[in-house]
Amino acid sequence: MSPARLHADPDWWSSDDTNDCAAAQLACRRCPTPEACLAWAIDHLTDAGDAIWAGTTRTRRSQLRREFTPTAPKEPK
Predict the structure, then answer these.
(1) What is the pLDDT of residues 56-68, one digit of tens each?
(2) Do 65 and 41 contact (CB within 8 A), yes or no?
(3) In the beta sheet, which residues pair with residue 56?
(4) Among the four 12, 35, 41, 55, which has the fewest Cβ within 10 Å?
């Protein structure tokens, strides 16, 4: 178990409650491996679901994925 989660309620990461989500995001700040967590969650949007991963929400991860997905150059007409 991550040190960040030692004194945290595991339900925080998947709760619909705003306070629980905020607590999960704060706990994520103490995690030593947020990059790996975020990378997994961005690569597995469906599996990550609505849970908090690396302090991010599903909406934020979708935004990040769009920002960092390369797009092909448009063909001239």
Answers:
(1) 999 999 999 998 8
(2) no
(3) 53
(4) 35
